[in-house]
Amino acid sequence: MKRHARILFGSAAIAVLTLGVASASAAPLDLVVCHVDDRSGSAADTGIESLNGLKMLIDPINAAGGIDGQKIKLVTYDTKTDPQLAASFGTRCADDDHGLLIIGGSPSAVANSLVGVANQSKIPLYILAAASPPLTDNANYQFRFGPKVTQDSIAVADALAENGITKVAIINNSVPFGISGAASAKKELTEKGIQITSEQTYDVAATDVSPQIINTMQSDPQVILVYPYPADGARVMRTIRQMGLKQPVIMPRVGMMQAFRDLAGKDADGVLVPSSVDTKRPDVAKFFAQYSKDYAPLAMSPSPVQGYDAGTLTVKVLKDEKVQAAIKAGNLQGARDAIRDATTRLGDFTGLQGTLKGGYDFSKSHHGPTDKGFFVFVSVDKAGKGMEIVDPTKALKAK
Amino acid sequence: MSKPTLPAAPTPTILPVFVFLAIGALIPLVLESGFYIRLAMLVWTYAVLCMGFNLLYGFAGQISLGQPAFYSLGAYAYAMLQIKLGWSPAVALGGSLAFVAVVSLLIGLPLLRLRTHYLAMATLAFMLVENGVANRWIDFTGGQSGVEVPALKWAGEEIGRTGIYYTVLGLAAVVLLLHDFLIRSHLGRGMQAIRDDETAAQALGVRVDLYKLRVLVLSSVMAAIAGICFGITSLRVDPSLSEFHVLVSLLTIVVMGGLGTRFGPIIGSVIVVALPQVLTGFGRFETAIYGACILVFLIFLPHGLSGLVERKFQWRADRATADAKRRKQVLKEEVS
Questions:
Q1: Do the beta carbons of residue B177 and residue B52 sit within 8 Å?
Q2: Residues β-bridged to residue A75
Q3: Contact with chain B for residue A78, Cβ under 8 A
Q4: Are the beta carbons of A116 and B280 separated by less than 8 Å?
């Protein structure tokens, strides 16, 4: 009996010792963060700007020695608006680069693919500009920094209802952003009792959108709501101006994009955009001044601040005690799970995006920005070169 | 669109098919990373998609740009039959293939009266319609978010990436064997006769309309199998399956692998799936280099890599036959 007990005790001691040595000798994980987003293709601006915003946060931290002496290694992939390619890059980040976290997914189709990767590979995903509402439904590993398209629609519907607008025409392109944007706007406007006088869809590559504008004109709306991509958005605006329509035009998201404003020029002036960026905030104004100095002049855009805010939370969670413990133990899955949990614990914060009344609200049941107080209205001016925060009441009544 | 000039008929041996399948079977044993296994799954998925296109355009000369629509339809049908009707994966597989076969038959009856670029445009329009429906029928298809494909299970447990890989490989093996059999059978010769000259083929007794319809349905079913492979790999189906980038990938595979060749779809898929991963290190020049590679293939290898290899083998076989004939002639003369 004694002999058996000695053997048992000896085996247990060896096992404990072996495990101890093994865990002690496991190398700490590298702080690998992947940026997987479009930097070419139709949504290139969003990915380029978000990466620049992310670098504006990470580069100074690395220059100062990193987190606890470890530098953040940023791995970047260009998804070219190809969801299959995005899924491959996401998997590469998770399996080959041993990434701790993926940041990216500005077009919804790309974000959709990355959500699949996040759930299959159990890696946290910080989604940037993607507007599709279901991306964070029943979410586990994915969190969104850009608002849902329904949040834009609610902001627009609220502003129109408050200003007594009762008739709105919708024009959208035939890509998913246009279709889902229009569907969401229709739902929110109808709920507020606002009549949709006309719904017009055109192909994203259409060179002539005058039939859609004529139909819109004949329906006699008080406001025109447009959901385009940058290039076709410029064509829509040019046609609206050429046909002499005087109604206010609201263009969620794309109205702020540099590519749209450059292409539309003076035809972009007066376009109203519900914006998740409030440049009246001194910290936001300072950020854009620095961005313009480091990269290229940029009046206002949500993508760089989304990248910056995603970076801010990344640094916060990487410094988290439980995350650091898993990283130091070389436990990759443990670190990813700890990052996910830390995001829900630390994710209630005001970043550069949103207003001081509304920021991010990441918890176990809510994985995105706050539903209220996240938008201001801006108007494009200076022949597309500038943007100014406006009071929607004045902007809508002035027309 | 001009008819393609293609290499001579392939040597009828099935051995290379088994070599490809054996390599495929060994991949999970060699590559442990889930990323590489995913790439291998994508290679087989695109290879299956392109085998159908290869039969239709490469061998029968019928240019259809609607293959992504059947690819998407197969994936949606497979997911919906499980989600909405509660069918098992195996039954949903059969049901979705039958559904796509019926749709392609209905589409093919009027469309196959068209030729060349008219047929290309009509099938492209079908793809756009399918994509529009997938995007806009939000209540049924989930719109741009798509629908989730139920994970494959074995004994109540979700099967892992390696298990999914072997499922995809199994489906690809069936398609590859069928593809090879058809090319080497009388149906394959009939298709090639139609491609070279429809009137002459008809005069020789080939039932042109029936052959064209058969090959359209078959290629659509192959595209549907590819869609199902993608669905079980990614666990999601969305409208991006029938967007232009899929068509561009399909045509790039054809250019790089070789149209009207036996193994062009597989070789082209390896390049198209692997090349973007290799080129990531080139940063902003990545897309330009990718385009330059395609140009190089178009200019210097118009029959793709597979065409080059198959032609080399064909040339060797022809030379061996000529040598044997010459030796026989010499022997005859010596005896006489």
A1: no
A2: A34
A3: yes
A4: no
Structurally, chain A folds into a number of domains equal to: 2
Q: What is the ipTM of this complex?
A: 0.74
Claim to verify: residue A360 and residue A389 sit in the same structural domain: no
A307 shares a domain with A217: no
Whether residues A287 and A184 share a domain: the answer is no
Tell me the residue range of the domain where A223 lies: 150-275+376-398
A10, part of any domain: no
Q: Which two tokens stand for residue B70?
A: 């059947």
Q: Note whether residue A20 is domain-resident.
A: no
Alpha carbons within 13 angstroms on the beta-carbon side of residue B9 total: 15
Q: pLDDT tens for chain A, 399 residues: list them.
A: 455 555 555 555 555 444 444 444 578 999 999 999 999 877 788 999 999 999 999 999 999 999 989 999 999 999 988 888 899 999 999 999 999 999 999 988 899 899 989 998 999 999 999 988 888 888 899 999 999 888 999 999 999 999 999 999 999 998 878 888 899 999 999 999 999 999 999 988 889 999 999 999 999 999 999 999 889 999 999 999 999 999 999 999 899 888 899 999 999 999 999 999 998 899 999 999 999 999 988 878 899 999 999 999 999 999 999 999 999 999 999 999 999 999 999 989 899 998 888 789 888 788 889 877 889 999 999 999 988 999 988 888 744
Determine the distance in angstroms separating the CA of B284 from the nearest CA of chain A, rounded to an integer. 8
A117, A198: one domain: no
Mark whether A247 and A388 lie in a shared domain: yes
Q: How far is CA A275 from CA A80, A158, A256, B18, in A?
A: 25, 14, 8, 59
Q: Are residues A136 and A154 in the same domain?
A: no
Give which of A269, A288, A305, A294 is closest to A386, Cα–Cα. A269
Q: Which of A95, A109, A119 faces B238 most closely, judged by CB atoms?
A: A109
Same domain, A127 and A35: yes
How many residues would you count in chain B?
Answer: 336
DSSP B56: I
pLDDT at B174: 96
Q: Chain B within 8 Å of A122 (Cβ-Cβ)?
A: no
Q: For residue A196, what are the β-bridge partners?
A: A168
Contacts of A79 in chain B (CB under 8 A): none
Which of A85, A116, A133 has its CB closest to that of B236? A116
Task: List the CATH number of the domain containing A56.
Answer: 3.40.50.2300
A167 is a domain residue? yes
